[in-house]
Protein backbone atom coordinates (compact mmCIF):
# COMPACT_ATOMS: atom_id res chain seq x y z
CA UNK A 1 0.00 0.00 0.00
CA UNK A 2 2.79 2.43 0.97
CA UNK A 3 4.78 1.65 -2.19
CA UNK A 4 1.68 2.24 -4.34
CA UNK A 5 1.07 5.65 -2.73
CA UNK A 6 4.72 6.56 -3.16
CA UNK A 7 4.58 5.63 -6.84
CA UNK A 8 1.46 7.78 -7.31
CA UNK A 9 3.29 10.74 -5.76
CA UNK A 10 6.33 10.23 -7.95
CA UNK A 11 4.12 10.12 -11.05
CA UNK A 12 2.40 13.40 -10.14
CA UNK A 13 4.35 16.48 -11.39
CA UNK A 14 2.47 18.82 -9.05
CA UNK A 15 3.31 16.63 -6.07
CA UNK A 16 6.99 16.56 -7.07
CA UNK A 17 7.03 20.36 -7.35
CA UNK A 18 5.44 20.64 -3.92
CA UNK A 19 8.07 18.35 -2.40
CA UNK A 20 10.83 20.38 -4.02
CA UNK A 21 9.41 23.61 -2.60
CA UNK A 22 9.07 22.04 0.83
CA UNK A 23 12.68 20.85 0.72
CA UNK A 24 13.82 24.32 -0.24
CA UNK A 25 11.62 26.45 1.99
CA UNK A 26 10.56 24.06 4.74
CA UNK A 27 7.35 24.86 6.58
CA UNK A 28 7.08 28.25 4.84
CA UNK A 29 6.39 26.63 1.46
CA UNK A 30 2.69 27.48 1.74
CA UNK A 31 3.29 31.16 2.63
CA UNK A 32 2.99 32.41 -0.95
CA UNK A 33 -0.36 30.67 -1.24
CA UNK A 34 -1.81 32.50 1.76
CA UNK A 35 -4.38 35.26 1.08
CA UNK A 36 -2.94 38.75 0.60
CA UNK A 37 -4.38 40.02 3.88
CA UNK A 38 -2.71 37.14 5.79
CA UNK A 39 0.65 37.86 4.14
CA UNK A 40 0.24 41.52 5.12
CA UNK A 41 -0.08 40.45 8.76
CA UNK A 42 3.04 38.31 8.41
CA UNK A 43 4.93 41.30 7.03
CA UNK A 44 3.83 43.23 10.10
CA UNK A 45 5.30 40.47 12.26
CA UNK A 46 8.57 40.73 10.35
CA UNK A 47 8.69 44.45 11.07
CA UNK A 48 8.18 43.67 14.74
CA UNK A 49 11.05 41.20 14.51
CA UNK A 50 13.27 43.92 13.04
CA UNK A 51 12.50 46.04 16.10
CA UNK A 52 13.47 43.18 18.42
CA UNK A 53 16.80 42.93 16.58
CA UNK A 54 17.47 46.61 17.25
CA UNK A 55 16.86 45.94 20.96
CA UNK A 56 19.12 42.87 20.81
CA UNK A 57 21.84 44.96 19.17
CA UNK A 58 21.67 47.44 22.05
CA UNK A 59 21.74 44.53 24.49
CA UNK A 60 24.99 43.21 23.02
CA UNK A 61 26.52 46.69 23.16
CA UNK A 62 25.68 46.95 26.85
CA UNK A 63 27.01 43.44 27.54
CA UNK A 64 30.32 44.42 25.95
CA UNK A 65 30.45 47.70 27.88
CA UNK A 66 29.77 45.78 31.09
CA UNK A 67 32.57 43.35 30.32
CA UNK A 68 34.93 46.29 29.71
CA UNK A 69 33.94 47.76 33.07
CA UNK A 70 34.55 44.57 35.02
CA UNK A 71 37.79 43.76 33.22
CA UNK A 72 39.23 46.91 34.78
CA UNK A 73 38.23 45.59 38.21
CA UNK A 74 40.19 42.41 37.50
CA UNK A 75 43.38 44.31 36.59
CA UNK A 76 44.85 44.66 40.14
CA UNK A 77 44.32 40.94 40.71
CA UNK A 78 45.90 40.04 37.38
CA UNK A 79 48.90 42.25 38.21
CA UNK A 80 49.33 40.50 41.54
CA UNK A 81 49.13 37.15 39.78
CA UNK A 82 51.93 38.25 37.46
CA UNK A 83 54.02 39.38 40.44
CA UNK A 84 53.68 35.96 42.09
CA UNK A 85 54.36 34.03 38.86
CA UNK A 86 57.52 36.03 38.12
CA UNK A 87 58.76 36.04 41.71
CA UNK A 88 58.42 39.77 42.24
CA UNK A 89 56.11 39.03 45.16
CA UNK A 90 56.42 36.16 47.64
CA UNK A 91 52.98 35.31 49.09
CA UNK A 92 52.76 34.51 52.78
CA UNK A 93 50.30 34.11 55.64
CA UNK A 94 46.65 34.15 54.63
CA UNK A 95 47.62 34.60 50.99
CA UNK A 96 48.72 30.97 50.89
CA UNK A 97 45.85 29.52 52.94
CA UNK A 98 43.62 27.45 50.65
CA UNK A 99 42.12 24.03 51.26
CA UNK A 100 43.26 21.55 48.63
CA UNK A 101 42.53 17.87 48.08
CA UNK A 102 45.87 16.35 47.12
CA UNK A 103 47.33 12.87 46.98
CA UNK A 104 49.38 12.87 50.18
CA UNK A 105 51.68 10.15 48.87
CA UNK A 106 52.54 12.20 45.80
CA UNK A 107 52.93 15.58 47.52
CA UNK A 108 56.44 17.06 47.61
CA UNK A 109 56.83 18.86 50.94
CA UNK A 110 60.41 19.95 50.33
CA UNK A 111 61.27 23.64 50.03
CA UNK A 112 63.57 24.79 47.21
CA UNK A 113 64.60 28.42 47.77
CA UNK A 114 66.51 28.46 44.49
CA UNK A 115 63.24 28.50 42.52
CA UNK A 116 61.90 31.94 41.68
CA UNK A 117 58.16 32.38 41.19
CA UNK A 118 56.38 29.59 39.30
CA UNK A 119 58.61 28.22 36.51
CA UNK A 120 57.03 27.62 33.09
CA UNK A 121 53.67 28.81 34.37
CA UNK A 122 52.22 30.01 31.06
CA UNK A 123 53.77 27.21 29.04
CA UNK A 124 52.08 24.71 31.36
CA UNK A 125 48.79 26.62 31.16
CA UNK A 126 48.85 26.54 27.36
CA UNK A 127 49.82 22.86 27.19
CA UNK A 128 46.90 21.98 29.45
CA UNK A 129 44.42 23.56 27.01
CA UNK A 130 43.83 21.31 23.99
CA UNK A 131 42.92 24.11 21.60
CA UNK A 132 46.24 25.89 22.27
CA UNK A 133 48.42 22.83 22.86
CA UNK A 134 47.53 21.52 19.40
CA UNK A 135 49.45 24.38 17.74
CA UNK A 136 52.52 24.37 20.02
CA UNK A 137 55.62 22.77 18.51
CA UNK A 138 58.73 21.59 20.33
CA UNK A 139 60.54 24.73 19.23
CA UNK A 140 57.64 26.85 20.48
CA UNK A 141 57.97 25.31 23.94
CA UNK A 142 61.53 26.57 24.25
CA UNK A 143 60.35 30.10 23.45
CA UNK A 144 57.23 29.99 25.63
CA UNK A 145 59.42 29.25 28.66
CA UNK A 146 60.27 32.96 28.45
CA UNK A 147 56.60 34.08 28.54
CA UNK A 148 56.09 35.88 31.87
CA UNK A 149 52.56 37.32 31.56
CA UNK A 150 49.46 37.37 29.37
CA UNK A 151 47.03 40.27 29.67
CA UNK A 152 43.63 41.21 28.27
CA UNK A 153 42.64 44.73 27.27
CA UNK A 154 38.95 45.20 26.54
CA UNK A 155 38.14 47.99 24.05
CA UNK A 156 34.69 49.52 24.33
CA UNK A 157 34.70 51.79 21.29
CA UNK A 158 35.31 50.63 18.65
CA UNK A 159 34.19 47.28 20.03
CA UNK A 160 37.02 44.78 20.38
CA UNK A 161 39.74 43.37 22.60
CA UNK A 162 43.51 42.97 22.67
CA UNK A 163 45.74 40.22 24.06
CA UNK A 164 49.25 41.10 25.30
CA UNK A 165 52.00 38.51 25.69
CA UNK A 166 54.98 39.75 27.71
CA UNK A 167 58.32 37.96 27.34
CA UNK A 168 61.53 38.23 29.28
CA UNK A 169 64.72 38.86 27.34
CA UNK A 170 65.50 35.84 25.18
CA UNK A 171 67.61 34.59 22.28
CA UNK A 172 64.72 34.29 19.87
CA UNK A 173 63.24 37.74 19.17
CA UNK A 174 63.73 41.36 20.19
CA UNK A 175 60.10 42.15 21.07
CA UNK A 176 59.30 42.48 24.75
CA UNK A 177 55.54 42.40 24.12
CA UNK A 178 53.58 40.68 21.36
CA UNK A 179 50.00 41.83 20.78
CA UNK A 180 46.98 40.35 19.06
CA UNK A 181 43.93 42.54 18.53
CA UNK A 182 40.41 41.75 17.40
CA UNK A 183 37.96 44.33 16.07
CA UNK A 184 34.24 43.55 16.33
CA UNK A 185 31.27 45.04 14.52
CA UNK A 186 27.78 45.05 15.96
CA UNK A 187 25.68 46.06 12.98
CA UNK A 188 22.52 44.74 11.37
CA UNK A 189 22.98 44.06 7.66
CA UNK A 190 20.31 46.04 5.79
CA UNK A 191 20.38 43.52 2.94
CA UNK A 192 19.99 40.53 5.24
CA UNK A 193 18.78 41.80 8.63
CA UNK A 194 17.46 38.47 9.90
CA UNK A 195 20.97 36.98 9.75
CA UNK A 196 21.96 39.18 12.71
CA UNK A 197 23.16 37.13 15.71
CA UNK A 198 25.40 39.60 17.50
CA UNK A 199 28.90 41.08 17.08
CA UNK A 200 31.15 39.82 14.29
CA UNK A 201 34.93 39.78 13.96
CA UNK A 202 35.78 42.16 11.12
CA UNK A 203 39.53 42.45 11.61
CA UNK A 204 42.38 40.86 13.54
CA UNK A 205 46.03 41.89 13.59
CA UNK A 206 49.17 40.81 15.37
CA UNK A 207 52.59 42.23 16.19
CA UNK A 208 55.32 41.64 13.64
CA UNK A 209 57.85 39.45 15.41
CA UNK A 210 61.46 40.63 15.07
CA UNK A 211 63.27 37.30 15.00
CA UNK A 212 66.97 37.47 15.81
CA UNK A 213 67.70 35.09 12.94
CA UNK A 214 65.93 32.77 10.51
CA UNK A 215 67.41 29.81 12.35
CA UNK A 216 65.38 30.52 15.53
CA UNK A 217 62.12 31.33 13.72
CA UNK A 218 59.81 28.32 14.31
CA UNK A 219 57.23 29.52 11.76
CA UNK A 220 59.52 28.89 8.79
CA UNK A 221 62.22 26.48 7.74
CA UNK A 222 64.55 26.25 4.77
CA UNK A 223 64.72 22.94 2.95
CA UNK A 224 67.11 21.86 0.22
CA UNK A 225 65.59 20.27 -2.86
CA UNK A 226 66.95 18.96 -6.13
CA UNK A 227 65.73 20.82 -9.20
CA UNK A 228 66.27 19.57 -12.73
CA UNK A 229 66.90 21.93 -15.63
CA UNK A 230 64.46 20.83 -18.34
CA UNK A 231 66.64 22.21 -21.14
CA UNK A 232 70.11 21.09 -20.08
CA UNK A 233 69.07 18.11 -18.02
CA UNK A 234 71.36 19.15 -15.19
CA UNK A 235 70.38 18.87 -11.52
CA UNK A 236 71.15 21.50 -8.90
CA UNK A 237 70.33 22.06 -5.26
CA UNK A 238 67.91 24.88 -4.43
CA UNK A 239 66.70 26.19 -1.09
CA UNK A 240 62.99 26.64 -0.51
CA UNK A 241 61.34 28.40 2.41
CA UNK A 242 58.59 26.27 3.98
CA UNK A 243 55.94 27.48 6.41
CA UNK A 244 55.77 25.44 9.61
CA UNK A 245 53.00 24.93 12.14
CA UNK A 246 53.72 27.12 15.15
CA UNK A 247 51.93 28.92 17.96
CA UNK A 248 53.62 32.10 16.76
CA UNK A 249 51.63 32.04 13.51
CA UNK A 250 48.89 33.38 15.78
CA UNK A 251 50.53 36.81 15.44
CA UNK A 252 50.43 36.71 11.64
CA UNK A 253 46.83 35.83 10.73
CA UNK A 254 45.37 35.94 7.22
CA UNK A 255 43.36 39.02 6.37
CA UNK A 256 39.70 38.78 7.37
CA UNK A 257 37.60 38.82 4.18
CA UNK A 258 35.26 41.71 3.56
CA UNK A 259 31.70 40.34 3.27
CA UNK A 260 30.97 43.01 0.62
CA UNK A 261 33.95 41.99 -1.49
CA UNK A 262 33.64 39.69 -4.47
CA UNK A 263 37.06 38.20 -3.77
CA UNK A 264 36.91 34.55 -2.76
CA UNK A 265 38.94 33.00 0.01
CA UNK A 266 40.02 29.42 -0.25
CA UNK A 267 39.30 26.70 2.28
CA UNK A 268 42.77 26.86 3.80
CA UNK A 269 42.38 30.55 4.67
CA UNK A 270 38.92 29.91 6.11
CA UNK A 271 40.26 27.18 8.38
CA UNK A 272 43.21 29.30 9.49
CA UNK A 273 40.95 32.19 10.46
CA UNK A 274 38.50 29.89 12.20
CA UNK A 275 41.29 28.38 14.29
CA UNK A 276 42.69 31.85 14.99
CA UNK A 277 39.38 33.15 16.35
CA UNK A 278 38.87 30.06 18.45
CA UNK A 279 42.30 30.38 20.06
CA UNK A 280 41.76 34.09 20.69
CA UNK A 281 38.40 33.48 22.31
CA UNK A 282 39.66 30.51 24.32
CA UNK A 283 42.35 32.76 25.73
CA UNK A 284 39.98 35.63 26.37
CA UNK A 285 37.06 33.77 27.89
CA UNK A 286 38.64 30.90 29.77
CA UNK A 287 42.40 30.82 30.04
CA UNK A 288 43.20 34.33 31.27
CA UNK A 289 40.66 34.31 34.07
CA UNK A 290 41.24 30.68 35.03
CA UNK A 291 44.95 30.39 34.36
CA UNK A 292 45.78 28.89 37.77
CA UNK A 293 43.19 26.14 37.26
CA UNK A 294 44.58 25.44 33.80
CA UNK A 295 48.04 25.24 35.35
CA UNK A 296 46.97 22.64 37.93
CA UNK A 297 44.79 20.76 35.45
CA UNK A 298 41.62 21.42 37.44
CA UNK A 299 39.96 23.43 34.66
CA UNK A 300 39.10 21.32 31.66
CA UNK A 301 38.67 23.43 28.57
CA UNK A 302 37.43 21.32 25.73
CA UNK A 303 39.02 21.36 22.30
CA UNK A 304 35.58 22.05 20.85
CA UNK A 305 34.77 25.73 20.57
CA UNK A 306 32.02 25.34 23.20
CA UNK A 307 34.60 26.13 25.86
CA UNK A 308 33.19 23.98 28.61
CA UNK A 309 31.42 20.70 28.92
CA UNK A 310 29.44 19.20 31.76
CA UNK A 311 31.06 16.88 34.27
CA UNK A 312 30.53 13.21 33.53
CA UNK A 313 27.81 12.08 35.92
CA UNK A 314 29.38 8.62 36.03
CA UNK A 315 32.85 9.90 36.98
CA UNK A 316 34.64 8.32 39.90
CA UNK A 317 33.56 9.96 43.15
CA UNK A 318 37.07 9.52 44.54
CA UNK A 319 38.55 11.59 41.72
CA UNK A 320 39.34 15.17 42.81
CA UNK A 321 36.62 17.57 41.72
CA UNK A 322 37.66 19.60 38.70
CA UNK A 323 35.98 22.87 37.92
CA UNK A 324 34.17 23.63 34.73
CA UNK A 325 32.65 26.83 33.45
CA UNK A 326 29.06 25.68 33.67
CA UNK A 327 27.66 25.75 37.15
CA UNK A 328 30.65 27.72 38.33
CA UNK A 329 29.96 30.77 36.20
CA UNK A 330 26.35 31.28 35.02
CA UNK A 331 26.04 31.79 31.29
CA UNK A 332 22.68 33.37 30.43
CA UNK A 333 21.75 34.26 26.88
CA UNK A 334 24.05 36.94 25.59
CA UNK A 335 26.98 36.41 27.96
CA UNK A 336 30.27 36.77 26.06
CA UNK A 337 31.01 33.03 26.06
CA UNK A 338 27.79 32.44 24.17
CA UNK A 339 27.60 35.37 21.78
CA UNK A 340 31.20 35.00 20.67
CA UNK A 341 30.42 31.38 19.87
CA UNK A 342 27.54 32.67 17.74
CA UNK A 343 30.04 35.13 16.27
CA UNK A 344 32.17 32.21 15.09
CA UNK A 345 29.19 30.43 13.58
CA UNK A 346 28.07 33.62 11.83
CA UNK A 347 31.55 34.17 10.45
CA UNK A 348 31.47 30.70 8.95
CA UNK A 349 28.07 31.35 7.42
CA UNK A 350 28.60 34.89 6.10
CA UNK A 351 32.29 35.57 5.52
CA UNK A 352 33.11 32.22 3.94
CA UNK A 353 30.16 31.45 1.73
CA UNK A 354 31.63 30.60 -1.62
Summarize the SSE layout with pairings.
Blueprint: H1 2-10, H2 13-25, H3 36-86, H4 121-127, H5 130-133, H6 138-144, E1 147-155, E2 160-167, E3 177-185, E4 200-206, E5 220-228, E6 235-243, H7 267-287, H8 291-296, H9 325-328, H10 336-350
Antiparallel strand pairs: 1-2, 2-3, 3-4, 5-6
Helix pairs in contact: 7-10
Written overview of the protein:
With 354 residues, the protein is α+β, with helices and mostly antiparallel strands. 39% of the residues lie in helices and 14% in strands. The chain has 10 helices and 6 strands. The strands form 2 sheets. It has a 4-stranded antiparallel beta sheet with strand order 1-2-3-4. A two-stranded antiparallel sheet has the order 5-6. The protein is flat and about 80 Å long. Mean pLDDT is 80; it is low at 304-354.
Labels describing this entry:
two-stranded antiparallel ribbon, alpha+beta, 6 strands, four-stranded antiparallel sheet, 354 residues, 10 helices, disordered C terminus, single chain, Arylsulfatase, C-terminal domain
Quick structural overview:
This protein is an alpha+beta fold.
Poorly predicted segments: 304-354
Number of strands: 6
How is the quaternary structure best described? Answer: single chain
Radius of gyration: 27 Å
Please indicate the percent range of residues in DSSP E strands (runs of 2 or more): 5-15%
Task: Output the helix-strand order.
Answer: HHHHHHEEEEEEHHHH
CATH architecture descriptor text? 2-Layer Sandwich
By CATH, the superfamily comes out as: Nucleosome assembly protein
Number of helical segments? 10
Give the overall shape, derived from the CA principal axes: flat
Main sheet overview? 4 strands, antiparallel
By CATH, the topology is: Arylsulfatase, C-terminal domain
The averaged pLDDT comes out at 80
State the distance separating the first and last CA atoms. Answer: 44 Å
Q: Domains counted in the coordinates: how many?
A: 1
What is the CATH top level name?
Alpha Beta
Give the % helix: 25-40%
- Class computed from helices, strands and strand pairing: alpha+beta
Amino acid sequence: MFSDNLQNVLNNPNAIQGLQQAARFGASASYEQQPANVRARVRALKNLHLQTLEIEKKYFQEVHALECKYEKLYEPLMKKRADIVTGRHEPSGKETEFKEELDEQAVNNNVDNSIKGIPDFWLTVFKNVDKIASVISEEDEKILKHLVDVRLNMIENPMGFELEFEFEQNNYFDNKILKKSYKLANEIDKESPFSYEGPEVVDCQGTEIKWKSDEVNPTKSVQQKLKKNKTKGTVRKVQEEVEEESFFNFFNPPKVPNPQSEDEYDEEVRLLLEEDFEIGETLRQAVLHEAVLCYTGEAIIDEEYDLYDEMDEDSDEDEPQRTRGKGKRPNPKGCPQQWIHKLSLKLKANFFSF
